[in-house]
Amino acid sequence: MEDxxxxxxxxxxxxxxxxxxxxxxxxKTFSIVERIYNIACHCPQKLKALCVITYTKKAAEELRxxxxxxxxxxxxxxxxxxxxxQSFFGTIHSLCWQHIRWFNxxxxxxxxxxxxxxxxxxxxxxxxxxxxxxxxxxxxxxxLLALTEDFSPKKTVNLEENSAFxxxxxxxxxxxxxxxxxxxxxxxxxxxxxxxxxxxxxKAFELPECSKGGKGFINTFYExxxxxxxxxxERAVAFIKKLSQDYFEYRLQRGYLKxxxxxxxxxxxxxxxxxxxxxxxxxxxxxLDEAQDTDEHQFCYIQKLCALNPQNRFSMVGDPQQSIxxxxxxxxxxxxxxxxxxxxxxxxxxxxxxxxxxxxIVRVLNEKFPHILCQSRDAQQVNYVPLMSATEREGSWETxxxxxxxxxxxxxxxxxxxxxxxxxxxxxxxxxxxSDICFLVPRKxxxxxxxxxxxxxxxxxxxxxxxxxxxDNPLFCAVLAFIHLINFPEDGFELAGILHGIFNISExxxxxxxxxxxIISPCNPGKSPILPLLNALFLLRKDVSEQAxxxxxxxxxxxxxxxxxxxxxxxxxxxxxxxxxxxxxxxxCSWCALECRLQHYLEVAIENEQTPCEDALQGFSCHKAKxxxxxxxxxxxxxxxxxxxxxxxxxxxxxxxxWNKYGWETSTELLNFRKRxxxxxxxxxxxxxxxxxxxxDDRALWKSETANLSFGELYDAI
Length: 718
Hints:
Blueprint: H1 3-12, E1 18-21, H2 28-42, E2 50-53, H3 57-71, H4 77-84, E3 88-90, H5 92-103, E4 109-111, H6 115-124, H7 133-138, H8 141-146, H9 170-173, H10 182-200, H11 215-253, E5 256-258, H12 262-270, H13 273-281, E6 285-288, H14 296-307, E7 313-318, H15 330-342, E8 347-350, E9 353-354, H16 359-372, E10 388-389, E11 396-401, H17 411-429, E12 437-441, H18 444-454, E13 461-463, H19 474-487, H20 492-501, H21 507-512, H22 530-545, H23 549-560, H24 570-586, H25 591-599, E14 617-621, E15 630-635, E16 651-653, E17 656-658, H26 664-686, E18 689-697, H27 711-716
Parallel strand pairs: 1-7, 1-8, 2-3, 2-6, 4-5, 6-7, 9-10, 11-18, 12-14, 12-15, 13-14, 15-18
Antiparallel strand pairs: 16-17
Helix pairs in contact: 1-2, 2-3, 5-12, 12-14, 17-18, 19-25, 22-23, 23-24, 24-25
């Protein structure tokens, strides 16, 4: 079936369900909008049942806007708009939060950050005697609690009492050392014997380690101890699951939910009689966008929703080639795709005509990527979907070779100089705004390095991959500090911080101030510059403290906003403060509750949207570039090794505990997992340009590293 026929079916056959594979730039958003438009044309009342789920709030807002714009072309647009207002557009987590509020009688606060709650839980947690003693001998409780994020808090079965696992260590003790490693091996054997004696006597509190004696001995050491580590890992995972459940119930008892709780708790709410009755009467039209970014628990929730009413409809659109987020297992998506098709619940469609990439780029993609994304080479990788170009633009895909670096010059600076010279010639032959040119790199820290090297050469680079937290925003901190003073007006330390940080009062003047730092009552007359400020803060507190939070918060923002340096994130912070104040007042809570809720946001990242500057080159991390496009895309640092963060042991990988860096099998699995994800990230990166793709061949600048991959190595390994 041709591409046009498949699109037509998805858009117009609204009584059938589909699972669509939609590669980069094929116009999936347009097709989703058209499908919704056809639902509205044939049965506008069904818009009330429409539930559109996508990966981010921004994407959901964009979809709703596009649908609303499309409805403007309908003769009955006013009526359709009213129905559309009753549709759901959002993330799976926002849908779960809605269901929790509908079907659960208790009120919960959604915690963006739970550090304080974790500390309280750990201080009061009692471990059942004898059940997890062996695990807690070797790893601290707080480290195990940190690993609970990877598990849903479902019911678990307690382990039997500990039965000591005695490993057979003879292969280590009987190892025949090479002459040059004799001393190191003997020392390792003696340490292991001492550890074994302590372990049998219940005195060992550290795991056995070995880093010397040669590769053969180190391999033997960890292979011999592998059954012990596996046994300990199984008990640790069981304990982590129990911790996950216990901490979840602890949060519930105190009226808190975390973002990660929403799926599981909403699933629990679906089991209530209230939810079952509601969904029996209200069938749903579920439409899942970016399905490849949906994880196992989210898919389970969607499937459970579908099962509540036989009239429910479910279609999804995704692209396994663009699965680049570690938390979502692409195999889970592919398995569901195949199962829905095999069971006759969905029909498979594949869109293949790209409206973004020109002919030359499509030709190179179709030549290169069948060898990079290829299940015959790697059974766990996805297969490449061939593309066709819908545009008449020829475009270009070119590689620019950068010569070796001169002695004494840093590779980044050398590459930036070469880029500068290239840009001058390129813009001479291809006149365009600087903002039409984007640099994409797999590591956001590289963008800052590139910016620092390009700026002195006269090339401004606008970066979007930096993430600030709310603690970094002056307005947020000022408002939160004053809310604290509403609750504790005698807190001189907080007042000193406001006087110094916001009003620029010197530390000397604050120290020499001869009256108490407080805003409970007006200050006595005097000459200090602090007096009028304290009296002004006293009046502000008197004014707003008599009001409910939602009524008074606008006055506080209005007071402090002119005093704080402006920031790109001010609008996000204002919206968060106002929304939190509204929720507090809705729950009939106090200023203390507002302070507590806002404090939880201090270390939370601000999702800040910047407007592109036309006179600046654009810089994005490859992950953040997903879904975006530019006229020209340049890939610097193409052969630069991508170093991954050092793990803090123990950590979880694929549901197993990794205790040390010498877990050979796990290390190989992890490397292969990273390679697959990086191959898909390369695909996403190479499908962003509308006209030109330029690769900087900088292999002469960067030393290849066995343990680290680069885009260039993946590109050449064909």
